[in-house]
Specification:
Layout: E1 46-48, E2 53-58, H1 73-90, E3 94-104, E4 114-124, E5 127-136, E6 141-152, H2 154-170
Antiparallel strand pairs: 1-2, 2-4, 3-6, 4-5, 5-6
């Protein structure tokens, strides 16, 4: 089982991260969590044993500014999507976002250590319902989301991706 502590992480870390899946060593470039995407958020999530969810501590760089001194709403949505999406990985499934609703409760400050959390609410067949929050370290909830994720066959999904890579490389 993973450590109950969350890993502190800033948007400037540079370690590599590979996608766990049917293509060993496939490096992904997810804007939210890949360390390979130099313009991304570089979020890292850890398991949280208290609720079966995930958590990440992070700071958002100024390049993601919306209102002066605060995080852009689209970036807030991305962080919440990542928090809920990582719950799927913890459950050992690949599931894609079907629907997400967001409550922007308070302005989210830039360059401040924050915490994103996500946890499962229920499952109905291939549908997985999750909740995510961005919190100040004092526990104040700044933004909250609810999402529906649809489980997919990861081998089929990544095989299509692999075929596109092969086709693209052959046509250069």
């Amino acid at each position: 089982m993973s450590s109950p502590r969350t890993r502190k992480h800033t948007a400037t870390a540079t370690s590599g991260h590979t996608l766990d899946g049917p293509i060993p060593g496939l490096v992904h470039h997810c804007f939210g969590c890949s360390q390979e995407n130099r313009t991304g958020l570089h979020l890292r999530f850890q398991d949280t044993p208290e609720n079966g969810g995930v958590a990440s501590e992070f700071r958002v760089a100024r390049r993601f500014e919306g209102p002066p001194g605060h995080v852009h709403g689209g970036i807030i949505a991305t962080i919440l999507d990542e928090a809920m999406g990582k719950v799927n990985r913890r459950k050992g499934i690949v599931a894609l976002t079907r629907h997400m609703s967001i409550e922007y409760l308070r302005p989210v400050p830039l360059s401040t250590l924050l915490r994103a959390v996500g946890w499962s609410v229920k499952e109905e067949g291939r549908k997985h319902y999750h909740t995510g929050e961005i919190r100040a370290l004092d526990g104040t909830v700044l933004a909250r989301a609810k999402g529906v994720f649809i489980a997919v066959d990861s081998a089929e999904l990544f095989e299509k991706y692999k075929q596109r890579l092969t086709f693209s490389a052959a046509n250069r």
